[in-house]
Design goal:
The protein is mostly helical and 314 residues long. The protein contains 14 helices and two strands, in the order H-H-E-E-H-H-H-H-H-H-H-H-H-H-H-H.
Length: 314
């Protein structure tokens, strides 16, 4: 009886040896997968932030216009000048107003999608929310500039239904009005709300879907009215989603420099100030100091949001 011939296995290649190595040592595979994005985050992103912070401690020579690479807090002191402080306050007020406006508009949409939309209607909801994000940002802003113009569709519709006097009265309000909606802070607010609204709807809808139906039924069984149920059950449980959405709307409004250039008055916001200072003015230290302001504000805001459980709704 002949002995069986041993099987001859093909020589293992580099891919086979690497597969075996990753299978035996999963931490090695994890390190290989995480190293490129961590290098990108550490070198490119955090490195640029470190360079930005360093530039903010430099100053501009008033005579030569050159950057003096000497450590000083003079540039940060310039932020407290009246014209610069006005930019910061205006940006914060606009960011807060846009966030509140997005929350008020998004809540009923998100609530309907979370509680009543089923099947194809749920798909239509997601399509309707995501569809504006697929179009060009600039196209949307320029389209709104035409819509809000004095000869635009809003003015035409207001005249058609006899509401032109109300529109003119709104435009006559000091601080938010102007010659037309496209040249007013109100117009800037409208465009901001439209552009950032999806970023508020989606986290809010995800948060509302987590509200247990049993809690709503229990509230009704205990004799609570719909208003009481909304105030004591729905709103507290949906608040993480509201805070999560506000992270997007607030930070995106603070940093945007395109919308204030196209729609609104000549009043500057932080993003536009940074763009102009590092571009036409060449004042890199002041631009860096301005850029640090929203970073500090958002770090504080994110710390508060984390304590409120907002990241669970992202």
């Amino acid at each position: 009886m002949t002995s069986p011939t041993p099987a001859i296995l093909p020589e293992r290649g580099l891919a086979d040896r690497l597969t075996a190595l990753f299978w035996r040592h999963p931490r090695v595979l994890l390190a290989v997968l995480l190293t490129p994005p961590l290098l990108w985050l550490g070198v490119v992103y955090l490195g640029s932030l470190a360079a930005l912070l360093l530039q903010s401690f430099y100053s501009i020579d008033e005579f030569s216009g050159l950057v003096k690479q000497e450590f000083t807090l003079k540039t940060y002191a310039e932020l407290f000048r009246a014209q610069n402080l006005d930019i910061i306050i205006r940006t914060l007020l606009m960011s807060a107003a846009v966030t509140i406006g997005c929350a008020l508009i998004a809540f009923p949409i998100a609530y309907y999608a979370a509680r009543f939309a089923r099947g194809k209607w749920k798909a239509i909801f997601y399509l309707g929310v995501m569809l504006p994000l697929w179009s060009s940002y600039l196209v949307k802003v320029y389209a709104w500039k035409l819509i809000l113009a004095k000869e635009g569709i809003i003015t035409w519709a207001a005249e058609g239904v006899g509401l032109s006097m109300i529109l003119n009265a709104i435009l006559a309000i000091p601080g938010i009005g102007g010659n037309s909606l496209s040249t007013s802070l109100l117009g800037t607010f409208i465009v901001f709300v439209y552009v950032w609204l999806p970023y508020m709807i989606l986290p809010m809808q995800a948060s509302l879907e987590r509200v247990p139906t049993s809690m709503l039924e229990a509230s009704a069984d205990l004799g609570a009215s719909r208003a009481q149920t909304f105030r004591t059950v729905i709103l507290p449980l949906a608040m993480p989603g509201v805070i999560a959405g506000s992270i997007f709307t607030f930070s995106l409004t603070m940093g945007d420099y395109i919308i204030p250039q196209i729609v609104g008055t000549s009043a500057r916001f932080i993003g536009l100030a940074v763009y102009q200072l590092q571009g036409t003015a060449g004042n890199i230290p002041l631009a860096a100091a301005f850029a640090v302001v929203p970073i500090v504000i958002m770090v504080i805001y994110l710390m508060i949001a984390k304590r409120k459980g907002a990241f669970d709704a992202l």
